[in-house]
Design goal:
Growth arrest-specific protein 1-like protein; 2 strands; mainly alpha
């Protein structure tokens, strides 16, 4: 019986990604109980605890993309958003766990300056879409780089498209931006694949992470551990569909974008 209580308490205290504060409508343990009563939320929460366990325990220094993705899916359920606005109250264990998961939150990155190197990728993409030349180059990128998105290889046509995109001022910021928002997990996957497979003039483009990866013509097929991205899932959003929820709530998941 004591062991069962300890397990339940551990689960309640690991609602760590939830935003606390006086403005919270519910205490976290109540929000979690409501989630457990909803089939979709209960399943998504289970996926979250599994995906984020190694990071919460300190076994990984960087938040894995599948943990971020699990948070996004959890917040798409009916009861999931309540978890984000709940209040830990005086529960020190809940607050510690909440601080631990903070780096995984798929929030919009707000730059403190207009410097392109200080932009979130959501903002960088939107700026590119507002310019006809950059927008056209991005659509060519989506059409020509399907194998790259799925972690297979960077074709000559794809590399040429990227090179042209980087020659456009608004396209350059896609290379230096910080992955953010609900598209963060997909952005990081694409950037990681770019780093592994694409190089122009001996330099990696859209870099993500240290060290060289397999060359673009490598016979090795690399598959990301959590996502199999199809280029049809990367179509640009229509005007007005940009992410407007910037308080930390993933909300409705948007389609991933090139970075």
């Amino acid at each position: 019986m004591i062991r069962a209580i300890e397990v339940v308490w551990y689960i309640l205290s690991t609602v760590t990604w939830l935003s606390s504060g006086a403005g919270g409508q519910h205490v976290c343990w109540q929000a979690l109980l409501r989630c457990q009563e909803e089939k979709e939320c209960k399943w998504a929460y289970s996926q979250y605890t599994t995906a984020c366990d190694s990071f919460l325990k300190g076994a990984r220094k960087q938040c894995p993309s599948h943990c971020i993705g699990a948070l996004v899916k959890l917040n798409q359920t009916h009861s999931g958003p309540d978890l984000e606005s709940c209040d830990c109250g005086q529960d020190a264990q809940c607050r510690r766990a909440k601080r631990a998961i903070e780096p995984c939150m798929p929030r919009r990155y707000r730059a403190d300056s207009a410097d392109a190197t200080d932009l979130g990728c959501t903002e960088a993409r939107q700026r590119c879409e507002e310019e006809s030349v950059c927008h056209s180059a991005m659509e060519d990128y989506l059409s020509n780089c399907g194998q790259l998105f799925n972690g297979r290889r960077c074709t000559h046509e794809c590399r040429s498209t990227i090179q042209y995109l980087l020659s456009i001022p608004s396209g350059v910021s896609l290379n230096t931006c910080v992955c953010d928002g609900v598209e963060r997990p997909f952005c990081e996957v694409v950037k990681d694949n770019m780093h592994k497979f694409c190089s122009i003039n001996g330099q990696t483009v859209f870099t993500a992470g240290p060290g060289p990866g397999p060359g673009p013509d490598s016979e090795e097929n690399y598959y990301y551990e959590d996502y199999d991205i199809n280029k049809t899932d990367l179509k640009p959003e229509r005007s007005g569909e940009a992410d407007t929820r910037t308080s930390g709530s993933p909300g409705h998941q948007h389609q991933p974008r090139p970075r």
